[in-house]
Write a structure and sequence with these properties.
Elements: H1 9-15, E1 60-63, E2 69-71, H2 78-86, E3 90-93, E4 99-101, E5 106-108, H3 117-128
Pfam families: zf-UBP (PF02148)
GO molecular function: zinc ion binding
Protein name: UBP-type domain-containing protein
């Protein structure tokens, strides 16, 4: 058995995967579903908040429309059910601070989308105790 954590060619065949399915995920820099964002995103709960439904302590997501904290699809799928019930599309992962849009079925770049930047920065500060590093295109110019 291979010691690598990557699947072998044979394992890929077993799962119906191809090498083209592995690699870097490109986050979107725009989304048509940002109109449903809560106007009060700066009052989001801390990143260690448990799921409001099952109280699972990790792998939770913050709904950016109503500030509900619910567990992800690999736990009890409460955030997925919330989307299906409410059509609240845009959520932030407390695990890695990524932002996902269920309607787009894609990650969103929270540092490049102006409407998402404040909630991402606040979550980062609450999780790590310091502001996130600036991207090169957000650094002040030396003029």
């Amino acid at each position: 058995m291979a010691s690598s954590s990557c699947p072998t060619d044979e394992e890929e065949k077993d799962f119906g995967l191809s090498k083209a399915t592995f690699g870097r995920v490109e986050a979107r820099t725009s989304c048509d579903h940002l109109g449903s964002l809560s106007p009060d995103l700066i009052k989001n709960p801390p990143p260690h908040s448990p799921c409001n439904s099952c109280y699972y302590p990790t792998e939770n997501w913050l709904c950016l429309s109503c500030n509900q904290v619910l567990c992800g699809r690999y736990v009890n799928k409460h955030m997925l059910h919330h989307f299906e019930d409410t059509n609240h599309s845009v959520v932030l992962s407390f695990n890695d601070l990524s932002v996902w849009c269920f309607s787009c079925d894609a990650y969103l770049d929270a540092q490049l989308i102006p409407q998402l930047r404040p909630v991402h920065q606040l979550a980062y500060i609450l999780k790590f105790g310091e502001p996130p590093p600036l991207l090169p295109n957000h650094l002040p110019s030396a003029n």
